Amino acid sequence: xxxxxxxxxxxxxxxxxxxxxxxxxxxxxxxxxxxxxxxxxxxxxxxxxxxxxxxxxxxxxxxxxxxxxxxxxxxxxxxxxxxxxxxxxxxxxxxxxxxxxxxxxxxxxxxxxxxxxxxxxxxxxxxxxxxxxxxxxxxxxxxxxxxxxxxxxxxxxxxxxxxxxxxxxxxxxxxxxxxx
Length: 180
Fold this sequence. Notes:
- The protein has a single domain (about 30-175), classed as 3-Layer(aba) Sandwich (Glutaredoxin).
- About 40% of the residues lie in helices and about 20% in strands.
- It has six helices and seven strands; from the N terminus they run H-E-E-H-E-H-E-H-E-H-E-E-H.
- The strands form two sheets. The protein has a five-stranded mixed beta sheet.
C-alpha cells in the first residue's frame, strides 16, 4: 500500500516545496523577472530593419537617449493585448519605443502592424532569434529599458499594462532624468 502512495506523496512534497519557494521569494511582481543584464551594457547587435531589410541598425546608433526595446511578434497573442499600451507610450512621448520583431516573417509583421498600428520609432528584426538569446529573452512580449549610455536599467516579461507602466517603468524613467 505504501509503495503505491510513494509517487503521490513525492509529488505533493515537491508541489509544496515549489509553492513555498514562490511565496518566500518576496517579490511582489512575479512578472518582473530579474535579469543578470540589469545595470550592464546591453548586448550589441546589428540587425536589419523591418521596412528596409537592406538597412541595418546597431545598438550604437540607438544610444544618446533612453529607449524601450519592445520584443514582439505577429504570432504572439499577448502582444496584441499589450499593443494599445505601447501605442500610448509612444504617442505620449514618454520614451522612444524601438520594436524588436522576433522570429517573425517580414510579411506577417508588416500585415500585423497595418492592422493594429505601428507605434515604433524603429523596428529591428531578429528572425533567427540569436540576438534575443544574447538579451536573455524568455518569450514575447518582453520590454527592456535602455539608458542613453546603452545600459539596461529595467526588464519586464509579459504584456505591459497601465499598472506596470505607472508603478515600474515611469519611476525607472524618472531615475534616468530626475529633472524632467
